[in-house]
Design brief:
Number of strands: 0
Subcellular location: Cell membrane
GO molecular function: lipid-linked peptidoglycan transporter activity
Organism: Demequina activiva
GO cellular component, one term: plasma membrane
Radius of gyration: 24 Å
InterPro entries: Lipid_II_flippase_MurJ/MviN, MurJ
Largest sheet: none
Helix content: over 70%
Structural class: mainly alpha
Distance between the termini: 36 Å
Order of helices and strands: HHHHHHHHHHHHHHHHHHHH
Number of helices: 20
Number of domains: 1
Length: about 550
């Protein structure tokens, strides 16, 4: 009687529920860390604009220098490590004696990254020339001086990724996402010192490239590298506390790293293709305003500031969800559990889509005011140039979220080869659109064309990767995913319409200048944003979008208890 009256819960549903709660919990921790880091990063960028401007010569020179370690890291480490490490480290920790393999991965990866950092730093000027176009000698010299201080970040980015992937494989997610907070704190302190010692940027009389002193260059570039070093070194603490202690191991059993080498080789090839596109499109942006004399023309620095805003919603949700799911996906792949892999991917696509669809609409509607809030010291012409690039990029935000999840799935399936072949048409789309706009329009629109090319590349990538995985996973639960995205688009469209109507009552963003204007813009963004969120949430609820209900469930339970 008791069993009949109180049926036992379905074990599969119980496990699924635990997985969903675990995913929400891990995602929330990482999103909080990423959110804090991104906010501080935007503060850092605002202070950087206050120090060296947005479209000024020094701004473009520093942007190229600081871009180099990121591009080099992507070529030498990021794609390779993300492709190979997590799946292989998860497998290593699951078998007896697997820590030896992890020791060897960290040893070999660390040594190779250090060697590459030394060589690339010594050849700094070559890389500056390669990434620019039509720059005068004094601009090349200033960017090279910054690069000598910035390129050493490459080693610390490598260390951060190596140690961070060990933490992720052991499901110690929080530290990896919170460590960049320290990076931004150090950078903000350094820029604060610069503003005290050298004063803020003056658009009426900007410092010529040849007049920059060694001390000013060292403070701006050196503090940036110190921040990255802090971000990497702090991860050693949780790694040791978590029970793993690294030991030097250069050699090991024959064939131990064969799988990693094979996957890493194809991943490296894919990243090389992507970085060729980055190089070519950076040349377009750098050529738009080579001497920084036109404040209303977006150059490579304005592109960076727009990209920083564009990546905020992506980093907050997509990266957090993908990172939290990656370890579980690797386990399912190791056990050939295709059904669970398909379910993981479907849940991730739906959860990410509900957020990115709204983020796209909301940020496009409020873009001029968001730029004014985040970069209060920019002149109206500079803010407008950043806004135009941002809106172009936002057209590819939704497919960006999906492509990241698809890419992680290919990696857990140990199929980096397909990623390589798909990167070729993606790179062609990006470069083709950028150079097409460059050929057909005036320089003001060249950097906007780079943003449009990035959006086009994301759409090409999502179509190709979805098609490939559909065959590998015997379907993608596509109908359910598309229905969720369609409902989200309907609700976001209604929210966007309300937001646009409300903004007609606000003063134009171009009239809101300086810190007071940023304060007014903040109030506008908060008020209009709140109204849009309310309309969007109501729309999702009315359309019975389960992902929205799952996200709201913890809050509703807490309110119920109160």
């Amino acid at each position: 009687m008791t069993d009949a009256a109180e049926p036992k819960p379905d074990p599969e549903l119980t496990v699924t529920g635990r997985r969903r709660r675990s995913l929400r919990s891990s995602t929330a921790i990482m999103a909080a860390g990423t959110g804090t880091s991104r906010i501080l990063g935007l503060v850092r960028n605002a202070m950087l604009i206050a120090a060296i401007g947005a479209n000024a010569p020094a701004a473009n020179a520093y942007d190229i220098a600081n871009k180099l370690p990121n591009a080099m890291f992507a070529i030498l480490a990021a794609g390779v490590l993300n492709a190979a490490l997590v799946p292989q480290i998860v497998k290593a920790f699951q078998r007896k004696g697997g820590e030896r393999t992890v020791d060897r991965i960290l040893t070999v990866g660390g040594v190779l990254t250090l060697g590459a950092t030394i060589v690339l730093t010594l050849s700094a000027q070559l890389w500056v020339v390669l990434y620019t176009r039509d720059w005068p000698p004094e601009m090349i010299a200033l960017a090279t001086a910054f690069a000598f201080w910035c390129i050493p970040q490459l080693f610390f980015y490598g260390l951060y990724t190596l140690v961070g992937e060990v933490l992720n494989a052991r499901e110690q997610f929080g530290w990896f996402m919170w460590a960049p907070v320290l990076n931004n704190v150090v950078a903000i302190a350094g820029l604060g010192a610069y503003l005290v010692l050298f004063g803020p940027f003056d658009a009426a009389s900007p410092v010529d490239p040849e007049d920059w002193t060694a001390g000013a260059i060292a403070l701006v570039g050196g503090v940036a590298t110190l921040g990255v070093a802090s971000q990497a070194l702090i991860l050693i603490i949780p790694m040791v506390r978590g029970g793993y202690r690294w030991h030097w191991r250069w050699r090991g059993p024959k064939g131990e790293l064969t799988t990693i080498g094979r996957i890493a080789g194809w991943a490296l090839a894919a990243v090389l293709v992507e970085q060729v596109a980055v190089l070519l499109t950076t040349q377009v942006a750098a050529a738009a305003n080579p001497d920084g004399s036109e404040l209303d023309i977006a150059g490579n620095a304005a592109y960076f500031y727009a990209l920083s805003l564009y990546l905020v919603p992506h980093s907050l949700v997509t990266v957090s969800i993908a990172t939290a799911m990656y370890t579980a996906m690797a386990r399912h792949a190791a056990s050939d559990d295709v059904a669970s892999l398909r379910a993981d991917l479907s849940r991730g696509l739906r959860s990410v889509g509900v957020f990115t669809v709204f983020a796209t609409v909301a940020m496009i509607v409020m873009a001029p005011y968001v730029v004014r809030v985040v970069y209060p010291t920019t002149k109206p012409a500079e803010a407008a140039s950043i806004t135009e690039v941002l809106i172009a990029m936002l057209l590819g935000l939704v497919p960006l979220g999906a492509t990241v999840l698809f890419k992680r799935m290919y990696f857990v399936l140990e199929d980096a080869r397909s990623i390589f072949y798909m990167h070729i048409p993606m790179a062609i789309a990006w470069v083709g659109v950028a150079y097409g706009v460059m050929a057909l329009t005036e320089p003001r629109w060249w950097t906007v064309g780079v943003g449009l090319g990035l959006a086009a590349s994301n759409w090409v990538g999502v179509i190709l990767r979805a098609g490939g995985l559909r065959r590998r996973l015997d379907g993608l639960d596509g109908r359910r995913v598309l229905v969720t995205h369609g409902k989200a688009l309907l609700a976001a469209g209604a929210a966007g319409g309300i937001g646009w109507l409300l903004l007609q009552l606000a003063p134009p963003a171009s009239e809101l200048t300086g810190v007071p204007g940023a304060g007014v813009s903040l109030l506008i963004v908060m008020g209009v944003g709140t109204a849009m969120i309310a309309v969007y949430a109501a729309g999702l609820w009315a359309l019975r979008v389960r992902e929205a209900r799952d996200a709201a469930a913890p809050l509703l339970r807490r309110l119920g208890r109160r």
